[in-house]
Structure formats: C-alpha cells, structure tokens
C-alpha cells in the first residue's frame, strides 16, 4: 500500500478546484466554530475526514466494506460533541489486505502527529506482552497505561495489533473503558478510539468471497451482515485470540467489525501501480507483470486470491527495478 499523504485531494478541473476551495472554507468555518466549544481543540486531534476518504478511495484496493464501515463510524463519532462511549473497531482479514494500512491512515488523518503523536499508542504482543506467564503484571500495566494516557488526553487512539497472539484474558482490563459509563477510575474516556487488528476470521471471510465468486456474485454484493456472524464466531472459537475471556464480544462492546476481503490479481496490480507512483516512477508493464508473476494465488484450482495480499509488493518492486 502507498504511504499516506495528509490532505489527499482529487485535483481536477478548475470547477472542481473552486468547489474544493469552497468545501475547505466551509469545513474551516465549522472546525473553527467547534473549536470555540472545545471539541476539536484537544491535544493534537485534528480530524481530516475528507482527506481520509480520498486516501481510502485512491489507495485501498478491493475493500468496499472496510471503507464504508470505517468512514461511517468515524463520521458519526467525530461529529458527536459528547459521545457516550469510545469508538471501538475490530479489523479482521487475511494478511496483506490493508488492516495495518487503514490503522496508520486513521492515526495520520485524526492526529496532527500521525503515528508519532504522543496520543497514539500502538501495542504489539511481541514487544509489550511477550511472556504469557506474566499475564497479571501485564493486566496491571495495561490498565495503568490506558488510564494514565486518557488522563493526559481524552482524545487518544489505542491500536492493538495481532490480537490473535495476545495472552487470553489480558483484554478484560479494557472492558470498563469500552462501555457506556461516563467516568472510569476517575477518568473521562468517552472520546477515545480503540482499534483491534487480527487475522482471525480471515479464512471465513475468504470462504464467503470464494463462494460469491463461484456463484457469479459481484464482489461488492458481499454484505457486512453476512460476514459479521462468521467473524464473531471465529473470534469466540479461537482459544488464542485476545478477546478470549474478556467479555468484549459477548457484551457487544465493539461498535463495528471491519472485514477485509482477500485480494485478487487486479487488486495486487493496483497496489503495484500505487507503489510505483509513491516512488515517483512511471508505470512499467514489465515491473508490474514481474511482481504479479512472483505472487502466489489460491485456491490451487482457481488461482483467485493473493496469498500475501499486497504485503510484499514494495519489496518485490525494489527487486525488479
């Protein structure tokens, strides 16, 4: 996936430019008005939802559901001056389909400092919770980290990567922070955002996409309603998932499950072209074809979906340049 460019805009005709300037002015007035009331002036929280939508439209290949769910959820949350609970999203799908890319975009377009913002907190099981035998210590530390950071800035973003590798039971300490209470441990946490990322449910999503293709259904006809139950069941049935024994799924504390569909050949091609553009290079058919030829697809008979999505596109391009 291409790197995010803050303020992404589809520049076009003069008419489009004038319309854009008008929209920017209107957005500035609205932001200024809200800033006076304090809802947009917290920490370095500077949401740019039009930029996010533009970037998703241009660079996120093959994910109509993820785009729609993320944008809709964020718009409703950001525009609410007094949300009753934090925004909680759980991203699911096969490797290389764009989960980490979308989470980086959220940080980029919500906080002025992006992933480097002091109010964006990224947790990795390998780095922060490597030893299952220290689960009680990790619980204490995690509760303290979340509470302390929310005390400093209510507009904080917490990213939890590789949820299927977290010690089961650890996430139960987050449950009080994810509900609809107004104050937890003396801290106002209603404006926080929690993003959970995992591959769990990826196989089930792939199967739904494969069955749709075999029955000649358009990919865009796959609905959230048919994927949510299979993803939730996959999470609950996975003894190694971080939501295990946490009550987060059972108590419906997730605001949205965000499915990422497996990527087909033309989606990988889109990723290659994006990466070349990001490098400032013209599209080169021989490079695009070389990357596609070096990509493994499955199932064996149909050769339909990329085994690694777009995960290795950047490294493969460098090899063929």
TrEMBL record:
Domain (AAA+ ATPase) ranges: 85-227
UniProt signal peptide: 1-26
Gene label: TOR2A
Protein name, per record: Torsin
Record key words, sorted: ATP-binding, Endoplasmic reticulum, Glycoprotein, Nucleotide-binding, Signal
Family recorded in the similarity comment: Belongs to the ClpA/ClpB family. Torsin subfamily.
Pfam families named in the record: TOR1A_C, Torsin
GO CC terms: endoplasmic reticulum lumen; nuclear envelope
């Amino acid at each position: 996936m291409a790197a995010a460019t803050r303020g992404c805009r589809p520049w076009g005709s003069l008419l489009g430019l004038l319309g854009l300037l008008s929209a920017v002015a209107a957005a500035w007035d609205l932001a200024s008005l809200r800033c006076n009331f304090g809802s947009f002036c917290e920490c370095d929280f500077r949401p740019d939802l039009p930029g996010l939508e533009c970037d998703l439209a241009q660079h996120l290949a093959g994910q109509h559901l993820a785009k729609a769910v993320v944008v809709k959820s964020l718009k409703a949350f950001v525009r609410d001056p007094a949300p009753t609970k934090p925004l909680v999203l759980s991203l699911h799908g096969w490797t290389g389909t764009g989960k980490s890319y979308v989470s980086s975009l959220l940080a980029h377009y919500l906080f002025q400092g992006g992933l480097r913002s002091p109010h964006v907190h990224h947790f990795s099981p390998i780095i922060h919770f490597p030893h299952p035998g220290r689960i009680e210590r990790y619980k204490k530390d995690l509760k303290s980290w979340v509470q302390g950071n929310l005390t400093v800035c209510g507009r904080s973003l917490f990213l939890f990567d590789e949820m299927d590798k977290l010690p089961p039971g650890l996430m139960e300490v987050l449950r009080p922070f994810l509900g609809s209470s107004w104050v937890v441990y003396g801290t106002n946490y209603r404006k926080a955002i929690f993003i959970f990322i995992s591959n769990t449910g990826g196989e089930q999503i792939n199967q739904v996409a494969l069955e749709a293709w075999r029955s000649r259904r358009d990919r865009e006809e796959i609905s959230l309603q048919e994927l949510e139950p299979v993803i939730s069941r996959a999470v609950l049935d996975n003894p190694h998932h971080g939501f295990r024994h946490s009550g987060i799924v059972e108590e419906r504390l997730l605001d949205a499950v965000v499915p990422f569909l497996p990527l087909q050949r033309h989606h990988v091609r889109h990723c290659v072209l994006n990466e070349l553009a990001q490098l400032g290079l013209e599209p080169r058919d021989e490079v695009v074809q070389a990357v596609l030829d070096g990509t493994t697809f499955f199932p064996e008979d149909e050769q339909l979906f990329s085994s690694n999505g777009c995960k290795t596109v950047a490294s493969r391009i460098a090899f063929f340049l």
